[in-house]
Amino acid sequence: MLSHFETRREKALFCALVAIFTLALGVAFASAARQAERSFPGFAVWENLVAPAIAIGPVGAARERIPYRSVVIAVEGRPVGDAAALRALVRAVPPGTPLTYTFERNATRTAVSIPTATLRWRDILGAYAPYLFNGLALFTAALVGYYFKPRLAAARAFLALGGILGAVLVLAVDTLSSFWCSPLYFCLESLLPGALLHLALAFPVERPIVQRHPWLRWAVYVPFAVPAILQNIALRTSPERHLQVNDWVYALIALTGLVLLASLAHSYVHSRSALVRQQIRVVTSGMTVAVLVPSLGLLSIILLGVELPINQLWPLYVAGPASIGYAIARHNLFEVDRVLRTGVVYGALSLVTLLAYSGGLVITEKIIGAGQRLPASFLPIYLVGLILLFNPLRSRIQLAVDRLFHRQAYDYRATVEATTRSLASFLDTDRIATTLLDALTQVMAVEWGVLMVFGRSPQSRRIYSRPPERARRATELFPPGDATIAAIAAERRLLTRYEVPPGSRRRHPAGFDFERLDELGVALLLPVRFQDEPVGLLMLGEKQSGVYYTEEDINLIQTLDNQCALALTNARAYEIIHETQAELVRAERLAAVGELAAAVAHGIRNPLAGIRAAAQVAREDVVDARLIESLDDIIGEAGRLETRVRTILNFAKPFEPKLVSADLNAFLEDFAERMRKRIPAGIRLAVELDHTLPMVRFDTVQMTEVLEALVVNAVEAMTEGGALAIRSRLDGHDGARRDAVLTVSDTGPGIDAARRERIFDLFYTTKVSGTGIGLATAKRLIDQHGGTIGVDSAPGAGTTFVIRLPVPAVPLSA
User: Is 0.90 topped by the overall pTM?
Assistant: First the structure.
């Protein structure tokens, strides 16, 4: 056990404290037992006849009249000099005999008649057990913290407070019973304000002034040596003077307790460590009850003269050590988690060893018979088996404990190296996000993680999660362009859900609220930034073990976050280079189209214009209806061919659309009416319009070209007939982006995934007579409108092209 300490001094201090406190407990029990079952006045006194604010004995009207914190000067009119003389007078009369006691405080005398009583064990336990219990609990919690982190300033400060206050509570029993250790009790009581200041300077982290001047850690006790000396002098000489000094000590204890709470509040507000803030929250909840209320009670007794027995506040005292113990076990206070896990493992090993030995004895007795001498080989065989099985058994138990409590340890350095190596080798955002989230959820046992990767605009982002369903929930709670996400991404530090206390207005000083973060269950938020530019946002849930993130956890998360930011930046740069290369290829294709268009314009347009003009002239002179129909066909086909040539020219050098406010529904009805004349009889054309659609800005000529390309492709796909539908609807609500949505749906054979990915590429076509220009042109025209075009299709399920055009926030007039 002592091998945990690194120096002999630490071992000696630990053993000495355990021995001294054990001795103090023995003294307290012996002192109380010496007075048990004997007559006593019905109230407690110190050895100098001061009646402290301690209630003991049977409850009754007489006890309620006792003037606490005053001095007994006479019994039945006879002066008494000390507690021994008082008890001798009380024990000289039968129990239950009323005696008149004269109390004096500040030259004011009060006479009270109180019947004598027998001090039963139930009276002793009722009055003194809380002192012993709280003293033992506080000292044990302080000793545990010191055992795990003997060199941590906060652990040493807590040990000083736990040792002093624990000893004061335990020795208080003797100070009210046999008075063996009264001088030591009043000395430790006087040093208690120094211990509270010591803790305020060291917890949760040591103050910079103490780091610069280490002597301050113990110098805070020096001023309180004065009241310690004065109390011990007055204890033997003047009860009134002793009571006055004791009042000052109690007032100092109350004030330094309030200073400790103020110090915790200051650290919570100004600390940048999420771990520190959480530990303060957990500890302060108990310390407020254990320190604030008793401090106010002491001040009320001392300054206002309130007649309140201090020992009736004992249920509040236990909140302090309870909160410390909870913070140690639940939130890794003093970083004891790893040691606790090791302790559980070796405890389980001890139990298994004992059971194995007992089982071996039982089996051997069954074989050789009960009462027979064990074979000499039994113990060597048992020891050899234990040696062979110890390490494998320890490893398996350690693994089982880690999995049971989700507290598996990880190698910080190995985790950083492995994850960094993987992130550095990837130029794909999907693999980078997967690697980071796997490291956090699997290695660190985090319940879930969500990584938002920002694109070039607020609307373009990708969300990854482990498990996958968290991505859907995050998308629902935080839509693209959400102000809260933008505000968090602008932060430069780790944020936690504990930034604002529960029940308050869940708002952060930066301006964003935590309500939706609470709904998602976010515990940690960390902006992913590279050179002051936000590239993403990392959200993490609680750890599976239920403990809060340790400082090592947070350091690992921030390290991986920085590596992820670099990897995502590299991936984005690679994507930009890839897109640039694609643009170069596209530019080359456009150059080829331009050359082709120039050749076509030179070689086709002039003859085509002559053909069309000749047909128009001939139509004016012809009266035969059949010839007129043929000439109309020539003119129409010449016009369509002219349109195709113009399309090629426009694609090479696209002109800006002439956007005008128009009724999209009326445009679609007119377009459908014109297309019905060109659609074969086996295909049904339906038009479904949303009449709530507002006015939209678009170029009617270009939109006609887009829809014509989509309808012609649909008709050509439905060789055996089918249904064609043109629909419009409004998507979105006021206050957010709204789109006018156009869909062109057919019941054709559908498109497989490989073709869908390339369907808008220039010159890509699956038709024998196709050019691969129509859909590429449609996409280019829609892009010029500030909209988007996509396709939803599957083999055998038909095809739907979806066009989205932005609707202006301000209604437009026609």
Answer: no
Sheet holding 739-746, edge to edge: 683-688, 722-731, 739-746, 799-806, 788-793
Q: Pinpoint the residues of the chain covered by CATH 1.20.1070.
A: 2-37+129-334
The CA distance from 589 to 610, in Å, is 31
Q: Tell me the pLDDT of the chain averaged across its residues.
A: 78
What are the C-alpha distances in Å from 145 to residues 138, 142, 153, 157?
A: 11, 5, 11, 10
Distance CA 549, CA 555 (A): 10
3-state SS, 45-113, equals: CCCCCEECCCCCCCCCHHHHCCCCCEEEEEECCEECCCHHHHHHHHHCCCCCCEEEEEEEECCEEEEEE
The CATH class given to the 2-37+129-334 domain equals: mainly alpha
Q: Please name the CATH architecture into which domain 412-653 falls.
A: 2-Layer Sandwich (3.30)
User: According to the 3-state scheme, what is the secondary structure of 104-172?
Assistant: EECCEEEEEEEECEECCHHHHHHHHHHHHHHHHHHHHHHHHHHHHCCCCHHHHHHHHHHHHHHHHHHHH
Specify the CATH superfamily of domain 39-119: PDZ domain (2.30.42.10)
Q: How far is CA 103 from CA 65, 75, 411, 767, in A?
A: 11, 9, 68, 114
How far apart (Å, rounded) are the C-alpha atoms in residues 723 and 415?
Answer: 58
* pLDDT for the residue 110: 92
User: Averaged over 710-737, what is the pLDDT?
Assistant: 80
Average pLDDT, integer, range 545-556: 73
3-state secondary structure of 534: strand
Segment 158-211, tens digit of pLDDT: 899 889 989 999 999 999 999 999 999 999 999 999 999 998 898 877 888 998
Residue with tokens 């080989």: 377
**What SS3 state is found at 695?**
coil
pLDDT tens per residue across span 278-305: 667 666 656 666 666 667 766 776 776 6
Record: fold of 660-806: Heat Shock Protein 90 (3.30.565)
pLDDT in the model for residue 140: 85
* pLDDT reported for residue 616: 80
- The set of residues, in sequence order, having a beta carbon less than 8 Å from that of 759 and lying 6+ positions away, is 751, 775, 791
- What are the residue ranges of CATH 3.30.450.40 in the chain? 412-653
d(CA 769, CA 617): 32
β-strand pairing of 683-688 with 722-731: parallel
Name residues whose C-beta falls within 8 Å of residue 627's C-beta, 6 or more positions apart in sequence. Answer: none
- CA-CA distance, 95 to 99, in Å (whole number)? 11
Q: Which residues contact 384 (CB under 8 A, 6 or more apart)?
A: none
Residue type for position 35: Q
Average pLDDT over residues 424-434: 84
